[in-house]
Amino acid sequence: MALLELDRVSVSFAGLNALTDVSFTLEAGQIRAIIGPNGAGKSTLFNAITGYIPAHAGTVRFAGRDVRGMLPHRISALGMRRTFQNGGAFASMTVLENVLSGLSQQTASSAIGLLFGLPKARAAERQALARAHALLDLMGIAALADRKTADLSSGQQRIVEITRALAAKADLLLLDEPAVGLSASERDHLMRVLRGLAADGIAILLVEHTIDLVMAVSDCIAVLNYGQLIADGKPEAIRSHPAVLEAYLGKH
Ligand SMILES: Nc1ncnc2c1ncn2[C@@H]1O[C@H](COP(=O)(O)OP(=O)(O)OP(=O)(O)O)[C@@H](O)[C@H]1O
Ligand SMILES: [Mg+2]
């Protein structure tokens, strides 16, 4: 059984069909990219999967459960974590605080225990700190731990957001244009991190305009155009797919 399964998912906004009959599957440990021209429906697809907007038709199954109509925080608690196209790191927090804020609710509720000085809660806090520091290391931003997020470059803020999304255990990670504002070396690092996460069994859905990154990192690529899936296949096949070339050449 696939980890994520979309079956004829459709979304419309006041008569505009933003997504029409989109179907695909994603297995654990797979990286699937969603590409397509501006306005094709990529972010809408993420919103429909994660519960931020309702899909008007079709089914979204995650880990064997029908999640269509569920609230975002409930879907997230099932092990689906996301980032946002316009950035979602908390600007006023430090980098470390951002990552800690992404930790699971069990850890957050132990804050009450901490208030009363319970040893179990203190142990949980130590564990949370250790995990946050390990993630900062993994993402290459350990040196920024105590910096205020607002003072970082936009690329670094994006990496903070991804790190926060990783803080809680995730089976599926949805990244909406994670490489925007990243330097070439930050981008290379991100690619290696994504491959590493996939090797650990995490499934990744990636919306990205940087075609080189998409080609290098993805197991399969789905192409959206005007809300419809016009191609779906391995990177080599997508690169030369006639409908894909037409959609891109028609737009740019
Ligand atoms: N909340 C909304 N209300 C009305 N229309 C919307 C809404 N969100 C998206 N749309 C419309 O749906 C279509 C798809 O938008 P979407 O943001 O999903 O595209 P995208 O592929 O993510 O584009 P980009 O590459 O620019 O991020 C567009 O025509 C957009 O204007
Ligand atoms: Mg978008």
UniProtKB/TrEMBL annotation:
GO terms for molecular function: ATP binding. Keywords: ATP-binding, Cell membrane, Membrane, Nucleotide-binding, Transport. It comes from the Bacteria. Residues 4-251 form the ABC transporter domain. The keyword Nucleotide-binding applies. Pfam families: ABC_tran, BCA_ABC_TP_C. Coiled coil: none annotated. PANTHER family: AMINO ACID ABC TRANSPORTER ATP-BINDING PROTEIN, CONSERVED COMPONENT OF ABC TRANSPORTER FOR NATURAL AMINO ACIDS-RELATED. This is ABC transporter ATP-binding protein. It comes from Achromobacter veterisilvae. The lineage of its organism: Bacteria, Pseudomonadati, Pseudomonadota, Betaproteobacteria, Burkholderiales.
